Amino acid sequence: MGPLKRKYSFSSFEEAIAFINRVAPIFSQENHHPKITNFYNTVAFAYYTTSANNTVTELDQKIANEVEAIYQTLTPQS
């Protein structure tokens, strides 16, 4: 099983970068950093723990859920 992946879209490059900056403190606080990819208005995260043989741990799940919650506050709900 590979990393836990999440992908987010924004209306501009600036919004994508602002999102990365907004969630970065979560990674620093947990001292656990996902692979982050940004291409124009898209941000993708790959969560896994290198010290656990590159598997997905509870901490990866927790952080991914925190990032998802922040994204949900930014996007209008239908």
How would you describe this protein?
The protein is α+β, with helices and mostly antiparallel strands. It has a single domain, classed as Gyrase A, domain 2 (2-Layer Sandwich), CATH 3.30.1360. The chain is built from two helices and three strands, in the order βαββα. The protein has a three-stranded antiparallel sheet with strand order 1-3-2, covered by helices on one side. The protein is globular, with a radius of gyration of 13 Å.
What labels would you give this structure?
45% helix; 22% strand; three-stranded antiparallel beta sheet; alpha+beta; Gyrase A, domain 2; 78 residues; single chain
Would you tell me which CATH topology applies?
Gyrase A, domain 2
Helix content: 40-55%
Mean pLDDT: 92
What is the count of helical runs?
2
Structural class: alpha+beta
**Uncertain residue ranges:** none
The figure for the number of domains is: 1
Order of H and E elements = EHEEH
The main pleated sheet reads as: 3 strands, antiparallel
Instruction: Look at the structure and give the CATH class.
Output: Alpha Beta
Query: Rg to the nearest angstrom?
Result: 13 Å
Shape descriptor reads globular
Assembly classification: single chain
* Count of beta strands: 3
